[in-house]
Design brief:
The chain is of the alpha/beta class. Strands 1-2-4-3-5-6-7-8 form an 8-stranded mixed beta sheet, with helices on both faces. Helix content is about 35%, strand content about 20%. The longest helix is centred in the first third of the chain and has 14 residues. Strand 7, helix 7 and strand 8 form a beta-alpha-beta unit.
Length: about 220
């Protein structure tokens, strides 16, 4: 389905019945990232999976900013009259969730994120070098986004008062100190570092994420 939000055409899919959950994927991805997770969550919840602006089947854009994506999520909740949906975001989707929950503290009932960072320097050096080299060759605006944003402060995080689950893999490209910093500055947060997992391994088309989210959302969804 398509919906127009903030002057952008956004594609989303709705499945299941029950309390609402929003899913937002990572950089350069689409709803397909969650093709294993969606059917599992849909057994208990109404799942709304969004293609972020400029991704998947959503309309193309000339430049990307996380704040714009967060505003899209807030507008989506309002447009569909969703009452305190829960939110899960992977990587860039996690950044979007942090921004939306910080700016709109009553928007969600619960927040789960994985592999998110507060600033570009929150990524490990090898990852930043790889992005820089890729951008030099391609001038890809999505790579530029990761090189220049986000800039989320402790003050921003302190505005998030809902139950929050902060996930990362033990081998994540996000520094462990960065993941811990996120959890430490959100008052009602739970931190889980997953042994043996990298940035993608437990999320992308994987069954490993569902039981973790199921436990969290079962406790905190309305």
């Amino acid at each position: 389905m398509y919906i127009q939000l903030n002057g952008q055409v956004i594609y989303y899919e709705k499945t299941g019945e029950g309390s609402p959950i929003l899913l937002v994927h990572g950089n350069g991805e689409s709803i397909k990232t969650f093709e294993v997770l969606i059917p599992a969550l849909s057994k208990k919840h109404t799942v709304y999976a969004l293609d972020s602006r400029g991704h998947g089947k959503s309309a193309a854009v000339s430049e990307y900013h996380y704040a714009d994506m967060a505003e899209d999520v807030a507008a989506f909740v309002q447009a569909l009259d969703l009452v305190k949906p829960a939110f899960y975001g992977f990587s860039d989707g996690g950044i979007v969730g942090l921004l939306a929950a910080s700016k709109y503290p009553t928007l969600f009932s619960a927040l789960a994120i994985s592999g998110a960072n507060l600033t570009p320097s929150g990524c490990r050096l090898a990852e930043r070098i790889k992005d820089r080299l890729h951008y030099m060759k391609t001038k890809d605006p999505l790579t530029k986004l990761m090189m220049t944003e986000p800039h989320i402060t402790k003050e921003d995080l302190s505005k998030i008062t809902i139950p929050t689950l902060v996930l990362a893999g033990a081998k994540d490209c996000i520094k462990r100190s960065e993941t811990k910093r996120i959890a430490d500055n959100i008052s009602d947060s739970t931190l889980k570092i997953l042994p043996g997992e990298d940035h993608f391994s437990y999320v992308v088309k994987s069954p490993k994420l569902f039981p973790i989210l199921d436990e969290f959302f079962s406790a905190h969804c309305y």
